[in-house]
Known about the structure:
The structure holds two protein chains of two kinds. Chain A is mainly beta. Chain A is about 0% helix and about 55% strand. Chain A starts with a strand and ends with a strand. The interface of A and B includes residues 6, 43, 44 and 91 of A.
Amino acid sequence: GAVVSQHPSWVICKSGTSVKIECRSLDFQATTMFWYRQFPKQSLMLMATSNEGSKATYEQGVEKDKFLINHASLTLSTLTVTSAHPEDSSFYICSASRSVWDGGNEQFFGPGTRLTVL
Amino acid sequence: DAKTTQPPSMDCAEGRAANLPCNHSTISGNEYVYWYRQIHSQGPQYIIHGLKNNETNEMASLIITEDRKSSTLILPHATLRDTAVYYCIVRLASGGGADGLTFGKGTHLIIQP
């Protein structure tokens, strides 16, 4: 159990276009999902916290108008990188947290999405 | 969340036990020690967590010192597939996992054939 998927696994786009990344919890309901970014040879950095049915909470320095997050259901959160630029090229990883009344509060990570902006 | 310190890299021979240390001297009484690992170009994988007692699961054992200021993750019989970056994270286990994780630089464990 506790499987999280991401789609697509990799994407290449032109500068100025928008890219949507989906994160799904396949076998449990996740009231909270998180989005992380990882640049080469660096550690994961938390970008935002996504709660079902409410606005996302962004970490300091992350532009909310550039990285749009929608958490429309208990099993799906999406991250849209708007007007992508080469400096947005990175490895984007989501995680889903299982509700505490469902047995725990561990975070389960997706496999990541490699974004390359040309 | 309390800060953790880990060695940047370690080598271990295949088949031997890999012992990964972590210092968390500022840990508070209600903070847990979590371990995750990240194999190259994949999302992190949860390994184990504990509060003060030693813990064991099918993947690893976690030994926490009595003063809780440090811990050791033990992979009993390391294989080449255990080569990864291992992250020790200290965090509160409350609120249904409402807080994101703060990843340090971790330990790059290389299993040698």
